[in-house]
Amino acid sequence: VGIYILIAVGAVMMFVGFLGCYGAIQESQCLLGTFFTCLVILFACEVAAGIWGFVNKDQIAKDVKQFYDQAFQQALMAESETNNGKAVVKTFHETLDCCGPESPMGSFTPLWSNDLCPKKDNIIKAWTENSNCHKKIDELFSGKLYLIGIAAIVVAVIMIFEMILSMVLCCGIRNSSVY
């Protein structure tokens, strides 16, 4: 579902960018006005999503941990090397520098130590040094929330400048003489 959402958002952003570029090239007030309206709607959606994400950060962290657990179980059960679960779990482990879920001893296998965890000499040592991924996910959502907020503010400022400049261009086209 997440991939389809990203594809849809990318398509909408490409369409909005096309409206802005083509409207500026053609000096069309209608296209620039539509571009401005789309930017306002996208800005409102981003603000709403940011507020929703901040309010529900605990639920989002819980969902991410549940997704990790499902991928981890899929990686342990699979026998093929082309398993998506392995790739997801490896990405979690490398990005967060962690090793395994909250209670890894119940699902200890040689595959886990050899393939899934970051390169360490000993899986027990790796697990005790890196802590488990559930703790790292909680730290990400509680300790690094300010970074997400800074990125959101930067995007908001850029979008506000885009809206201002599109309205200035639209008004400039309206006031220019027809040749």
UniProtKB/TrEMBL annotation:
Family matches, as PROSITE patterns: TM4_1
Keyword Cell division belongs to the record: no
GO MF assignments: lipid binding
Gene3D superfamilies referenced in this protein's UniProt entry, alphabetically: Tetraspanin
InterPro entries: Tetraspanin/Peripherin, Tetraspanin_animals, Tetraspanin_CS, Tetraspanin_EC2_sf
Disulfide bonds: 98-133, 99-117
Annotated protein name in UniProt: Tetraspanin
Gene this protein is translated from: Cd81
